[in-house]
Amino acid sequence: MAKVTEFGYLGIGVKDGDAWREFASQVVGMEVLDEGDGDRFYLRMDDWHHRIVVNLHGDDDMDFIGWRVAGPDEFDEMKRQLDAAGVDWKQADGEERKERMVLDLLKFTDPGGNPTEIFHGPRVEAFLPFHPGRRMYGRFLTGAGGVGHCILRQHDVQKAYRFYTDVLGMRGSVEYNLPIPGTDMTASPVFMHCNERDHSVAFLGAPMEKRINHLMIEVDNMDDVGYTYDIVRKRKIPVAIQPGKHSNDRMWSFYMGNPSGWLWEYGWGARKATHQSEYYVADVWGHGVEASGFGMDLEMKA
Ligand code: MBD
Ligand code: FE
To answer: How far is the CA of 265 from the centre of ligand 1 (A)?
Structure first.
C-alpha cells in the first residue's frame, strides 16, 4: 500500500496580510517570499520554494493541507486507495500544479471536511539558502519530519483514524486520556504519524470552531524557543499554553495566538516517533493553560 511520507505544505487564508507578514517574519522567524501574485505570499522554512501559502482575503482558517508521497508510482497507488475507499478526488490540471509548484497533485476532503491534497515532487530550491525573517540561533527542523504537525477538526475521530490509517497509510492511536474539567467526561485525542516525527496530525475529539486548532513548528536550537517566547511576551501576543514538555513527543513548546486567532506551537527537542502505542494522563511539566478562547483549555497536569 502507498503511504504518505510527510506533512509537506499548508495553505492558510487570512484577513490581515500585513499582520501575518509581521508575525511570520518578526515573531516566528520565517522567510516571507512575495512573488507579486497579489492574492498571496509564501513562507519559507528550508530549501523548498515554500512550506506555507498565505492566501489574502481568506477566512482566518486553513485552506488546504498537502501530504507528500514518495513519487509517481505511489501517487498512482494512492488514487486506487482513494477509489477503494469511495473518496471523490480530483486530479489537478497544469495550472494547479504550477500554482502549488509540485510535479503532480490530487485533491479531496478528509472525513472532517478538511481540504486535503496528495502530491509528489515539491520544488526544492537549493540555490536559494533559507534566510530567516529575523535573527535565529538555529534553523527550522523540517527534513524527513515535514513541516511539523497540526490538529485538524474531525466530527468522528474514529472515522478519521480509519481514513488516515487505511487510505493514507499512517499509524497512531489515542495518546492521552484527560478529564474535562467540570464534567465526568474524558478527552481522548488521537495522534497520527507517518515518519520519524512523533505526530504529523492529531484529532481532538472535541468540537472546533475552525478547521485547524494549531500548527506546530520545531526548531533545532532550544534557545530559539526562549528567544521567540521573549518576543511573544514583549509584544503581548496571547500565550494559550505556557512553556512545558509534552509526554508523547517530549518536546519543549509553548502555544501563541496568530493574527487569525488560532494557535502556533513553537517547540524544540522532540523525541522520534515510538511506533508503538502508549497513553498518558498528564504532560511531563509545565504547559499551564493561560489565554482562553483558542480551544486549548485542557489541563495536561497530573
Ligand atoms: C501535542 O503536540 C499537543 O498539541 C497536545 C495537545 C498534546 C500532546 C502533543
Ligand atoms: Fe501540538
So the answer is: 9
pTM for the predicted model, two decimal places: 0.97
Q: Which three cell numbers stand for residue 196?
A: 520519524
List pLDDT tens digits, range 151-175: 999 999 999 999 999 999 999 999 9
Q: Which residue intervals of the chain are DSSP H helices?
A: 17-22, 72-84, 94-100, 157-166, 222-234
Residue type at position 57: H
Testing ligand 1's pocket by substitution, the residue of 157, 191, 213 carrying the most ligand atoms inside 8 A of its CB is 191
**In this structure, which ligand is nearest to the CA of 241?**
1
- Among protein residues, the one with the nearest Cα to ligand 1's atom 3 is 246
